[in-house]
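Entry 14. Ran structure prediction on the chain below.
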Amino acid sequence: MTASSKPDFRTISEFRKRHLKALSGLFVQVLKLCAQAGLVKLGHVALDGTKIKANASKHKAMSYARMQKAEVALAAEVAGWLKAADAADRKDDVSLGADQRGDEMPDWVSDKQKRLAKIREAKASLEAEAKAQADAKTKAKDGDDHPGDGPRPGQKPKHPAGEPKPKAQRNFTDPDSRIMPGKDGFVQAYNGQIAVDATAQVIVAHSLSNSSADAPCLIPLTDAVTQNIGKSPREISADAGYCSEANLAALNERKISAYIATGQAKRPTIGGKVGGPLTRAMRCKLKLGGYRSRYRLRKQLPEPVFGQIKQARGFRQFLLRGLDKVRDEWSLICIAHNLTKLWAAG
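Output, structure tokens:
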């Protein structure tokens, strides 16, 4: 009994922060309730992703090339200030006495020092990421049985391995977020992924990454559906962003019938002879199905769900920062969507 009293918004916010992990873990429990209510059949599941703004401005990001220039300039500026401050301290000691204080840094000096520290931290992060990628490529090349598949002799690499590209960026407000292409231009965002069941548009799996590419999400998302429900979907549809030989082969191994576009959304079967054997077979499969192909369900399932989340509920930007926290926040959004489906069915 609350005697009609309502908790303050700060109380709700603190409760969410304190129990974020536990709340995000409720997704599977709510999903199983939806399955018991007959809202999940796993006859057909459609996958899609959407770019959602991070709690950071894209104008607070800086490229690696700018970091290198800014680091040198700021370091020289800060060193000059420290030298001037030391000279001023000595002068004050002579005129006022050595026991008098007054050595606190002004705010305008402190802010520059903090910015320099942030730039150095972001620069080191980019360098570590580039080195890790180069090491992974070297390891993959060492274990490759087909060395002829690599670059032709005499080709010069476009960029030195192990070094960040000049245009690689980091955001100072939320370093985990990334610049991604959106409908309204480039945004500082995360890539939210969902798998939606055809029975009642219930989200049966979700994920979130800071990469704009969709293809790496397909198999983990498919396996998450199996793990959450206990069985695999019979059919899966997705747009061309998820199409790759590796993904199609993995779905074949799992005995899941796939309907994945090999071209543009309006013409999913274009491409001619482009792609490997599985991609060409998928192109023929979609072409033979025509307008009655199961691929048509792709737009009918995830896109209305994104519309309900973004338009009806007004969720267009994350409130939290950092990949782990944002993933949990995305889980809460998906839980809320499934609860509305469960409530409507009851």
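Strands lie at 44-53, 61-63, 169-171, 178-182, 185-197, 203-209, 235-238, 257-260. Will compare against last week's run tomorrow.
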